[in-house]
Amino acid sequence: MSMESVLSELFPNTETDIAGVEKLAEANFRKELESDDKSVAEPPLFDFSEMSTEDLAKFAMEAEKEINDESTSVGEQELVNEKTAQAQEDFLSRVMAHSFNHETVMMKVAMSKGLCRVCKENKAGTGSVCPECLAAAKE
Fold first, then answer.
1. Cα gap 119→110, rounded to integer Å
2. Is residue 120 within 8 Å of 103, Cβ to Cβ?
3. What is the pTM of this model?
4. Residues in contact with 57: Cβ distance below 8 Å, sequence separation at least 6, in sequence order
């Protein structure tokens, strides 16, 4: 018995099977794209986009208090810790994005007024940075 016959018995012609699966997947993909149902993606557990920074901080503190107050099993505690970590990561990423956006806007405002983009107080020298900030950067 040759190796080719053994392999052909173990693995029948998969090219036609793969082509059929690909066509089925493509048909399902097109069907989903053309459907009017836009609820394909699951909405997030909490929508923090409308909350202010202060509200998010209060929410995080309350969530931490609730977690500490409840007596849970080890498995439940791990799940709670994971969800708390996700909430903290979400909060911190939103704070970082807000800070970056705020700083960028403030730099643009300062530069439009002819002020230094670093300290936003002194007149800008050559480029968009004042001589004081350039000297401080060189130190």
1. 9
2. no
3. 0.40
4. 91
